[in-house]
Amino acid sequence: MPSGDPKQPGPLTVAIAEILKREYRLSGMTEFTLGAAVGVSQSQLSKYLNGYKVLDVDQLDRLCTALRIDIVDVVRRARLSAHRPA
User: Fold this and answer.
1) Mean model confidence pLDDT for the chain
2) CA–CA distance, 7 with 69 (Å, rounded to integer)
3) CA 69, CA 3: separation in Å to the nearest integer?
């Protein structure tokens, strides 16, 4: 049986992470503070913000709420970015 999380970040995850990271930087919060607001460690939050780990919908919702951004807008922007021709 394979170990670890079988979910590999795809283009949409990476695009969402880029948006969240940009919004996080604009927020003035620390990773520790944002992680605490979302209920994850600073290390886990860093993996999400860098697109190394896949967020589930509830985690994305908590992050968007903590950053005071609209989850629908984030997904819409990320989808456009992820599907943009290279």
Assistant:
1) 90
2) 25
3) 35
